[in-house]
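G., before I forget:
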Amino acid sequence: MKRRDFLKTAFLSGAIASAGWDPFRAFTNQGRRDTSQKILILGFDGVDPHLLETFIRQGKLPAFAKLWQEGDFKPLGTSIPPQSPVAWSNFITGTDPGGHAIFDFIHRDPQQYLPTFSASKTEEAKRTLNLGNLVLPLSGGEVTLLRQGKAFWQYLEEYDIPATVFKIPSNYPPAPSKQRTISGMGTPDILGTYGIFNFYTTTAAEVQKDIGGGRIHNVYIIGNQIEAKLPGPINSFKKDRPETFVNFKVHIDPVHPVVKISLPGEEFILQEGEWSGWKRVEFPLIPTQSVSGICMFYLKQVRPDFKLYVSPVNIDPANPALPITTPSSYSKELAEKFGPFFTKGLPADTSALDSDILDEKEFLTQDDFILAERNAMFDYELDRFESGVLFYYVSSTDQRQHMFWRLIDKNHPSYEPKLAKEFGSAIEKIYTEVDKILAKALAKIDKNTTLIVMSDHGFCPFRYSFNLNTWLKESGYLSLINEWKQGQEDLFLNVDWHRTKAYAVGLNGLYLNLKGREAEGIVTEREKEALMREIAHKLESYIDPTTGKRPILRAYVTKDVYHGPYTHKAPEIIIGYNHGFRVSWTSPLGGIPKKIVEPNTEKWSGDHCMDPSVIPGILMTNRPIKHSSPHLYDLTASILKTYGIPIPPTMRGKPIF
Amino acid sequence: MWAFNQAITWLFKIIFFPWEKLHPWWGMIYISLLTGLFMLWVFRLTSNQAGIKEVKQQIKAHLLEIRLFKDNMALTLKAQGRILLCNLKYISYSFKPMLVMILPLLLILIQLNFRFAYQPLAPGERTIVKVKVKPGFDLLQMPISLTSSPGIMVETPPLRIEEGGEIDWRIRAVQEGHHLLKIKINNDQEVEKEIFVAARGARKLSTLSPLRPPSNFIPSLLYPLEKPIPSDLPLQDIEVIYPSGNFHFLGLSLHWLIVYFLLAIAFGFGLKRIVGVEI
């Protein structure tokens, strides 16, 4: 099973069923109390303290420089592991993963040894009525947020303190609240996946490509016209569950590189190299029922080969098929003010860049759209920020560092001098963009406003891939059914569970094959402790013979580092990779390639799924930080303290002011 | 035809003059009221008022008959048959006023369409200009260009769609105001199309025609705001795609025709006693 298929299968089935969510759930207003103290939090995902300091010292970030001079700046301790869903959950709840139960992007089902998404779960209607080929739901489907623990804005709500929380990760579907919130990372596209783009081409070679995160469609030009389909969600109203789609036509001028695209109810003209802006598409389900989505078209090339990219279809904020805001009217309010906007959790299409469907320039253009939208909405929210807390999130800092690190790191296997010359400043530019956002915030705040600029983690190069499952196999902890098939199958299809003691799922997690917990577990409770310590010790001692380096800096036994009621659900060990190393692309989904360490030749070249000590985040505030080594969960406690709210004993953090 | 169109258009300009600076809702309420009154007036003049009154009384009597003799199947069925006959009679009495009203109503609807069905382009907004070419002309060989006054920017070269004989351009509204698109054909012939740009903020009643029609009777009647394209040109019509001007009420997006008929009927029923009309 390919990554794309996995993503699709995992999310798709419930997406439509959940269209039955209660739209009237939260037609309510946020807290009304006028607070003398305000807190403005700017969450810049992945901003790295070393890069930030370098750019500040070079005089490129005047607003950051000003804030540092007038306030304080410290590295911010991140989560174990330092993945965004985990780290932001630490911040949201003031606990570590033991308290919020998000341990990785990917968890696993111990009964099937299959990866599952950690953030949310979608379920179709439990009661249905079958009429021929029609399946009519008699109860609503459900989308459940899997993050546990109370969010800081829910605490504030109890004290009637207003909060607006914009696009914070790990909050899809949004936790029930009267506060104004819109979900961020983790919000799916209309298919229920993390984002599947569509690419229409007449190039046969491209059609053969096996890519993740996208679908390539072979199209034919007949009479200067192309007929194509834009795939939509599965139609769960039909027994055979067909894929829905929207038909569209492309009319091509016989001479000029210009086309007209005709969607149902709308036509628009694009020249080669142009983006369409948002277009609304309706996927029909049954008469009177359809799902509305929004997408962008990009005409990459007209001749000699035709190439048209269509972005992942985002949930339409004006008519959301899935819950993305509290109150539910908030997304409609924003859509009315700004028109359609990116609702998918991580909007930049890194898959399209990774698979060469979009080039660097095209990717950055798309990312600029995202940034422009975010800027406009930030101005809007900042303008009406009069009381309580405003949290504002930017994802482009993270996404650009993931994709462009190879162009600032000459030692990276994907470094290309020519591209580095042209796009090597992409990361610096995004830092200057967030500096502008900070400048606006500095201009707005008064003496009663605490300004917190934070990132969930930093960044470092991802030069080498570590195949953790291969290491387990080579070390005798994991056995294969057929040795000769090694490297050919994902999802542990070739694993002999009766002879396997440990396996790795997700980006940092390692599980023991425990008897009584796993379907075919063999490790007894008595053996568990010693085995955990043994594996952790061996992992930390392993030296890669090619590079001469230790790929793993620390292997954390989770029961030593987690606190809270969900610790028992965590992987037994969390891997803290060394600078330059990260888990491979195949290992997280149960792949077992032949080599333990391989160079990373992907465009996804910067990362943060390393050891927390390698990539701390940033904390910059306009008040002195009393804490010598603040952590994400300390900020949560600080917010509560500012408003005199008692810090619950379940919260791990301590106030920093 | 053009003189007639101009006269009707001027008449409606005068009718709507007081409402030009206001949101289209005001103009809609006003014209619905006028139409309601107009329909009542026509109904009173042209219908058989005494006949309508009598037939309605008869229907009521037969309904009472059904209620009183509900145990008598034969009588009930007979009464139902009579109600049906009375209804047919009632419809026949309404037929004449309907016939009288149909033409003026058609002219009213045509005029209202240009006031309520579309919104002007907003500055920065993009749209498509479509030129339909008469059959028999080779699109690829035809020298054709689109230029505009400074308020509009032509953004693309012509896009020729041979199937359907269509040439399209994408334009972008730059400045508010009334502008002219100029289409030059064969280097020596030129034809213009009006286009209107206004800020989207506070919507006002505006008159705009999406199509400059050919010189045939029906299209000229349906699109009376602009002079038909001279018949010696190889062009059939010129169209600008404007955004829809739907009305919004309680979260619903309503087509202007629905709003208009609902209001006109409501006004008609509300005022029938005052005007003294039996409907």
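Chain B has two domains: 18-117+253-275, 126-243. The domain at 126-243 of chain B is CATH 2.60.40 (Immunoglobulin-like).

More on Monday.
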